[in-house]
Write a structure and sequence with these properties.
GO terms for molecular function: DNA-binding transcription factor activity; sequence-specific DNA binding. By secondary structure, the protein is α+β, with helices and mostly antiparallel strands. It has helices at residues 18-25, 102-105, 137-140, 157-172, 177-199, 207-212, 217-225, 233-239, 244-255, 259-277, 282-288, 294-305, 309-316, 340-343, and strands at residues 29-39, 43-46, 52-59, 62-66, 73-75, 80-83, 89-92, 100-101, 113-117, 122-130, 146-149. It is 40% helix and 17% strand. The chain has a six-stranded mixed sheet with strand order 9-1-10-3-6-11. Strands 5-4-7-2-8 form a five-stranded mixed sheet. Helix 4 runs antiparallel to helix 5 (177-199), helix 8 packs across helix 9 (244-255) and helix 11 packs across helix 12.
Length: 348
């Protein structure tokens, strides 16, 4: 059914960096949306965001209380947080301070920064991450609800320079500041994910957990580097310096699926993107992904997605599809339009 093509088309060519592949595949785009300064006793309640949120303390300290979490978390200067689910949260100088509604605080037209209370004991900067409404699930499905990277952790070293630059860009308002801030925010998002990759002991089964295991990562790099190659279990096990049995067991335990199932699913992800975004003939997509015939590819695609390639392409070209829920009650709009309520509090 599969051959070993050497001239893969651009739609199937990927780097040997699965982490970068999936961030690009999810079309992750980070933006700085504002922040606030505060002094004295203060507390702000933010509504559940419709995008992944990140925020950092650039001066002082605060308490972060997230809906559904048992205890508030103390944030010091340089601490960074990433909220990946749709839950409201409170930032406060102390857990017992009654919060005000962020809607009121950021209600001015175009308002992204504000002052709360007397003095400037505390400073905060925040933003969000946009994702493709469909392919973004590949990232969100493997992330926990909440990531906190303390400034004291070894992984936070890179944050200090990034946060300083973000504050400078916001305050200086120089030409190109918006673009520069977006690039810095993207680096911050990547560093947060890297910190999670290096420190989490309770990572969900999936590609991210597999990538965190140095014994399994070589196989992922091979499959992402040449997705159209006819990989065999022996090849992948040898690259990881493991026996077939040991490799298959460890890969499934980390990734949640057997190695060749992972490869088949990744090929179908690439096929979906090509069908949505390109005019490449189905037969050419099939060849680029290692299938010897269009019919073999079509059967595999329908078996995995429930639709034929042509039917999938026709449906995709009718317009943006509704974003399917990726976490039951924690669903995001991702790259679709924000709700009016959240547009008022993007300073979070």
């Amino acid at each position: 059914m599969l051959d070993n093509p050497h001239d893969l088309r651009d739609s199937a060519k990927m780097s040997a960096d699965p982490f970068a592949d999936i961030l690009k595949f999810a079309n992750a785009e980070s933006l700085v949306t504002g922040g606030f300064t505060a002094g004295g006793p203060w507390a702000i309640r933010f509504p559940a965001p419709d995008k992944i949120k990140f925020f950092a303390v650039v001066k002082g300290h605060c308490w972060v209380s997230i809906e559904g979490e048992a205890e508030p978390v103390h944030f010091e200067t340089g601490d960074v947080g990433l909220l990946t689910v749709r839950r409201s949260f409170v930032l406060a100088s102390a857990p017992d301070v009654e919060p005000i509604d962020a809607m009121e605080l950021f209600s001015g037209a175009g308002r992204s920064t504000t002052q709360l209370g007397d003095g400037q004991d505390f400073a905060h900067i925040g933003g969000h991450v946009l994702l493709d409404p469909i392919s973004g699930r590949l990232l969100t499905d493997v992330l926990p609800a909440w990531i906190h990277v303390p400034a004291a952790s070894p992984q936070a070293t890179a944050f200090r320079w990034l946060l300083g630059q973000l504050v400078d860009e916001r305050d200086a308002n120089l030409p190109g500041a918006q673009l520069a801030s977006a690039q810095l925010a993207q680096l911050l998002f990547i560093q947060i994910l890297r910190a999670h990759l290096q420190t989490s002991d309770l990572m969900l089964a999936g590609w991210l957990r597999a990538l965190a295991d140095p014994r399994i990562a070589p196989a992922l790099r091979l499959m992402h580097g040449e997705p159209g190659r006819s990989w065999h279990l022996d090849d992948l096990a040898k690259a990881c310096a493991m026996s077939r049995t040991s490799f298959a067991y460890h890969f499934r335990a980390r990734a949640g699926v057997p190695p060749l199932t992972y490869l088949a699913e990744w090929r179908m992800r690439l096929a979906e993107r090509a069908l949505r975004e390109e005019e490449t003939p189905v037969a050419a997509i099939a060849r680029s992904l290692g299938y010897t015939s269009e019919s073999a590819f079509s059967n595999a695609f329908k078996r995995m997605t429930g639709n034929s390639p042509q039917k999938f392409r026709n449906a995709s070209q009718k317009g943006p599809r509704e974003n399917p829920s990726f976490r039951s009650q924690d669903t995001y709009a991702m790259r679709t339009a924000s709700s009016p309520a959240n547009d008022l509090v993007e300073g979070a």
